[in-house]
Amino acid sequence: MQFQNSLEFARQLDAEDPLRKYRDEFHFPKVNGKQVIYFTGNSLGLQPKRTQKFVDEVMNDWAALAVEGHFHAEKPWWDYHEKLAAPLAMVVGARPEEVTVMNTLTVNLHLLMVSFYRPTAKRYKIICEEKAFPSDQYMFDSQLRFHGLDPNDALVELKKREGEHYWRTEDIIKKIEETGDELALVLIGGVNYYSGQVFDMQEITKAGKAVGAMVGWDLAHAVGNIELLLHDWGVDFAAWCSYKYMNSGPGNASGVFVNQRHLNKKDIQRFEGWWGTKKETRFLMKPEFEPMENADAWQISNAPILSVAPYLASLGMFEEVGMNALIDKRKKIVAYLEFILEEIDKEVDGTFEVITPPDRGCQLSVFLHGQGKPLFDYLMENGVITDWREPNVIRLAPAPFYCSYEDMYRFGQILKKGILKNT
Ligand SMILES: *Cc1c(COP(=O)(O)O)cnc(C)c1O
């Protein structure tokens, strides 16, 4: 399609957008009385209007029923989390029994490492990407120290080539093969939070399994964004947060995937609690732990219902729309955004560099050469909510659920004015 940098053209794309009605299903912050152009759905997704009802229902049941709500609420709390498994399985390409919701992301990655990082004298190394999201770096370091290992030896960081902004799959595979039978675990962010690069999860998982390692993925920036086929790819485990593209609210409950091949096994190491035991006998309060046959075996505590409720509300929207329609719009709106950037770049004379490779999801990370923080401040003051990383990278994620093509056009105009003003 031949794009045009004009308001009429952007509005035409919106008129043809099968998802256009969903924009009104979200609350938008306002700047100067106008809805913002929201590019930070990769950090905290907007609030769906229907979420309030789901939270109110829990609050009302709690007020009216108190402890009885566990079994007699409109949606009883004791197994409320089970309602999320089927829609989440659809989003991540899993079987419903492989998916559960619990805790928060870094906590879950730690818990999954308890089960799937079992270092031995020979096989103890972990492969991750260099400059991983800081929480992941702290997790690797503390896990290795917990096992009495030296991160300088046991942690193998994947490097990018000199002067390149992205990792090459062939380099990753080579590193996995080189590490070979010393490799215990591959654990990478499926979509890199900084550059927006999408890793070839299928090929990397295959390579990791071929040398006998466990393969897990941190899907914080992948879930609800790109196509995932965790089961078919043979991934061992994965975890993600629900507050980025999944629009479930700040600090909200995390999702977990455990491959079917690890379910229902007696010899697995795991930190356990009462919500992981068979629900049929849970309230007999017996001393023996009998694991649930699905990923719920990893649950420890009873579920945080006030946190799970917004996740259920949001998953209803993902179910209605389906990942294919979201991905179709995401590709088109990201392509339009890149086109707008190129057009503005010509008008202001060459300052942008998109560092996100073609293997991408919703996010474009852009170097604004010659620009600094004042431009970012100008964008924010003019209702463009974006994210600035020193020295001069902005990350733009036009979430397909609620961003419009008109937003992209208007962003271009504000960006141009901001640059002309600052130079
Ligand atoms: C957002 C993000 C996290 C956040 O971790 P929490 O435990 O939810 O605070 C972790 N890892 C990656 C890669 C992220 O992008």
Automatic annotation (TrEMBL):
Keywords carried by this UniProt record: Hydrolase, Pyridine nucleotide biosynthesis, Pyridoxal phosphate
**Molecular functions per Gene Ontology:** kynureninase activity; pyridoxal phosphate binding
Q: Record keywords: Lipid metabolism included?
A: no
Enzyme class, top EC level, equals hydrolase
Pathway stated in the Swiss-Prot or TrEMBL entry:
Amino-acid degradation; L-kynurenine degradation; L-alanine and anthranilate from L-kynurenine: step 1/1; Cofactor biosynthesis; NAD(+) biosynthesis; quinolinate from L-kynurenine: step 2/3
Q: Which domain of life is it from?
A: Bacteria
What is the required cofactor set for this protein? pyridoxal 5'-phosphate
Report the NCBIfam families cross-referenced here. kynureninase (TIGR01814)
How does the annotation summarize its subunit structure? Answer: Homodimer.
Q: What is this protein called?
A: Kynureninase
